[in-house]
Amino acid sequence: MAEHPYVPQSLHLPGYVPMQLSVIEILSGYGLSSLGVVLLVWFVSGQFRHLRGVERTLMCWWAFTGLTHIILEGYFVFTPDFYKRKPPNYLDDVWKEYCKGDSRYAARDSTIVMVEGITAVLEGPASLLVVYAIATRRAYNYPLQLAVCLGQLYGCMVYYGTPLLDGIEYTTAGSFYFWFYYIFMNCIWVVIPSLIALRSWTEIVRQFEHKKGKKQ
Amino acid sequence: MAEHPYVPQSLHLPGYVPMQLSVIEILSGYGLSSLGVVLLVWFVSGQFRHLRGVERTLMCWWAFTGLTHIILEGYFVFTPDFYKRKPPNYLDDVWKEYCKGDSRYAARDSTIVMVEGITAVLEGPASLLVVYAIATRRAYNYPLQLAVCLGQLYGCMVYYGTPLLDGIEYTTAGSFYFWFYYIFMNCIWVVIPSLIALRSWTEIVRQFEHKKGKKQ
């Protein structure tokens, strides 16, 4: 009998420590702290009169995604033993819960660690830099947004693609974990970066088109 | 005794067909056809008087990298049985030779297939589009160059990073294959995309800076 609730059951996780928190506590912890970040950025950015609504909305997203990359995903990258830490902290339990949707995180799959490493170390700080760049309307804010979005999309392609190639089914405990954790939670980072990449691309192209008549 | 020349020797490749071409034939085939592409693009682009030297040089690179992605890497992605095809064609033998530097290609490692798939299917055609975009000075040529370069760099990070995490030594037959195939050949796609990404980034930022005084 396996000592953990993940699929495949053959996955060897010696010293696995069961979760201390309930699913409700884990999800509401992430949800409420994210909501707090969004509200804080929304109200603070409201003090800057030159910022439009769309800029403030983008700042909220970039603060949320940046902190998720750095804190949540960064913790996973630099804590290989999260599943056996005693006593487990909140982030240990978050990842133990998420592993029900994708056990590659507990198995320390090198592709997952690599993609999460790039996300946490490069894209996380870059996302927070976008918040600053939008607030101060730096000239580099559009190419930076495009760059980070493309990185997020590349990561999602590898994340979703490799299990399809391996033909492995990572879902456990019914379809809830598959649809909610694996598909829905990650699809947020497909849909929103796609929209922002498109917006940034369009704005960059528009700048070049404006200049075209004058220079060439 | 293993039926193939790769490391690890435990790699199971039933029906492996030994290479028909020599290393010299393989390398000179790729080298000469690449040289042909570069010379062709250089001379054809020379007919367009408005193109500067740097633009023509970039067009040569993008044609070379685009065709490498589509033909060479595309062949690998869509030919899982390249190592046992009878009689082997030139591309089969190219990949059998390259596997001496990185046997993950023969093992059909899902991360390699995914990264190569993105490279061949998305970045390959996008690279050829860059050739056209530079020649006709389309407004999207800089963000497109930035996007493809960042994709190439992300791919290289995953390509070089995952073996480091797995702690596996893929090199065989001495250090030649490691340094020439694995390090040198791939580092071309680290160095040149880095330079082009930096150039595209700088040019995009410059466009926004020019407009800043007028609009805000």
Care to describe what's here?
Chains A, B: One of its GO terms (biological process) is sterol biosynthetic process. Chains A, B: InterPro entries: EBP, EXPERA. Chains A, B: Keywords: Isomerase, Lipid biosynthesis, Lipid metabolism, Membrane, Steroid biosynthesis, Steroid metabolism, Sterol biosynthesis, Sterol metabolism, Transmembrane, Transmembrane helix. The structure is a homodimer of 216-residue chains. Chain A is mostly helical and 216 residues long. The first copy, chain A, contains seven helices and no strands. The longest helix of chain A has 41 residues. The mean pLDDT of chain A is 93. At the A-B interface, helix 5, helix 6 and helix 7 of A face helix 5, helix 6 and helix 7 of B.
Keywords, separated by commas or semicolons:
homodimer, 216 residues, mainly alpha, globular, transmembrane helix (chains A, B)
